[in-house]
Amino acid sequence: MNRKKKINETLKKRMKKANAKLHKSNKPRYISKAERAKLEAEAAQQVSAEETTSPSETETTSAETTVS
Fold first, then answer.
1. Predicted TM-score of the model (pTM)
2. Helix then strand then coil, % of the chain, to nearest 5
């Protein structure tokens, strides 16, 4: 009886591992605190860069439309 039980346990264990590989987790990838701070800094730089370029671009486009 013990031999059968051990064989069945090992087979179940193998099947469980195979099934676990097939199903991917829906859990999002972990992002470290340092990485989050770096991404936040990059986003802040992009926003500040857009703010500095936006007024000059709008002035040139409004000047072009008035000339036309």
1. 0.40
2. 80, 0, 20
